[in-house]
Amino acid sequence: MYYCEMCNRVHPxxxxxxxxxxxxxxxxxxxYCLLGSIGFxxxxxxxxxLKDNEISCISEPAKRNGMVAYRGTTAxxxxxxxxxxxxxxxxxxxxxxxxxxxxxxxxE
Length: 108
Ligand SMILES: [Zn+2]
Description:
Helix content: 10-25%
Structural class: alpha+beta
Bound molecules: zinc ion
Largest sheet: 3 strands, antiparallel
CATH architecture of the domain at 29-98: 2-Layer Sandwich
Radius of gyration: 14 Å
Number of strands: 7
Shape: globular
Number of helices: 2
């Protein structure tokens, strides 16, 4: 696996599928990786769930064309990041939470 420092994404090929940068290293346990782009209110529920499981998590409003998508209103989608060491566990919690709800990992 390779890790893109620009996008905080883990991907199987050296070229990042999002920004096309060529990654030169793999992820370390401390690297924050994109868990997904998640819509409200699932994002807040997932953050709470991650905290309950002692997984540190960073959330930020989903960006569109490099700009923050919202202006003074509640963000429609949040992008969540967790340490690579806990990415798999976080994915499982995410799947357990969503369980049939629509969620997308697409960057847009
Ligand atoms: Zn990238």
